[in-house]
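Researcher: Go.
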Amino acid sequence: MSTVALDVQAVRARFSALRRPLAFFDGPGGTQVPDEVIDAIAGYLRESNANLGGPFETSRRSDALVTDARLAAAEFLGCTADEVAFGQNMTTLNFALSRAACRELREGDELVVTRLDHDANVSPWLELARDRGLVVRFADVRDDCTLDLDDLERQLTGRTRVVAFPWASNAVGTLVDVARVAELAHDAGALAWVDGVHYAPHGPIDVAAAGADVVVCSPYKFFGPHLGLAFGRAELLERWRPYKVRPAADAPVGHRYETGTLAHELLAGFVAAVDYLRSLGWDGIRAHERALGERFLAGLPASCRLYGLDTMDGRVPTFAFTVDGRPPEAAAAELGDRGFAVWHGNYYALEIMKRLGLADGAVRVGIVHYNTAEEVDRLLAALAEL
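Model: Structure:
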């Protein structure tokens, strides 16, 4: 990938959605998409729309598209094309994969989750525990919202079968040392099961280097359309018995976990999203986001209480805070009226909000590479006025 500094104005010119006064700080809930993604989706529906396996032109084009999508996913995740699976969304894929894996578990086996996780990597394990008599243990976080690795290690026993954890927190932005947690999991004889949703728009993913066994993510969080993407280590995907219809093919092995006909037009958009990111390069994206994050942290008014790290070291530019004298919902609504898209509430990160004592959640600002310094300054000014 390129290492050229990011030209944010050139980036923004590729997004029709950004040609309006609204400043998008809602990336953690779903990013905007460049026009080439929209064009790829529409182009597929105009020129190639068909089901797979037919002896005619549009079906052959669709077959080729699915192959291209697997190759793009392999490039994005650092795995083989056989090890990827697409689905409706990350949550649906995670329920399906966790249930397939659970066929190997026995009553009394243990699962470790963290208090940093989005509930899509907690509730699948809680539901399995109810159904199969399993035990779920929670690894705690420190007061600065970093994962407490010592506590996580204390939760591991000879019965631990899965350690489920996020690459980055969708609520407070904390990064997790994925390789270290995976090492701890493997030392205990457990799988390292990673929610990569929130990290994916902010940096490169290499599942092999991280030592992950399963990684699930959502292309609509990294400038693509609404669908889910998963990596599973080939040995596991081959060994597990998937929930699938009998005529569905067993190869490639990731396909075993794709139920029904895929949304081919969205796969076309996904390929275009990966192409888009490749055209920018992660170095430029990360440098630009770090500069904007530092700008935001330096200018955050004293009336705002930040939860999590007060530096860009060890985090992505996602910030949770409360505003003195304003419930989070009211603060977010006022910012919306002033032309800023931000979120409020718990963002499905129930455990960290409980840990922080935030019954009403917090305001969340998420910065991605298409944001500008001018937008950050305007947002800081609006927060000061609140």
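Model: The chain has a mean pLDDT of 97.
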